[in-house]
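Below is a typical protein record.
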Amino acid sequence: MWVPKNGGVEADQREAAMRKWRREAALDLYNLLLAMFLLISPWLFARANGIAAMDLRASGAVIAILSLAAMVAFSKWEEWANLLLGFWLIVSPWILGFAHTRAMHFSIAVGAAVAYLAALELFLVYDAAHPAAFPSEPRERH
């Protein structure tokens, strides 16, 4: 039987680190659920025009991929991309010409939620890396 050099301690530490769940990863899970909702949303309204359906499906697919990637191996650029995609979903009904439809309401609501979750995660990551920037305890007044 093969025994690691360090008696398995190093291997156990690596495994524990891989199993460690970032608390911010829950926000990526919520973004993934929103992406799944975007992917199925064109079927929720019977007369969604082709451009709206394509935009919602494509945006949902990209958000899902980015959210899964962020859960597996976090990088800030994934959250910045989700933030931009959220803003895109907010303005896309007017740019692509499906304003004043039910698809517009889905696009704006989900876009705002995706942008909010991405901005919140970016803030939480920044706050964890720079604890002195936002002190958690109020200072004493004299």
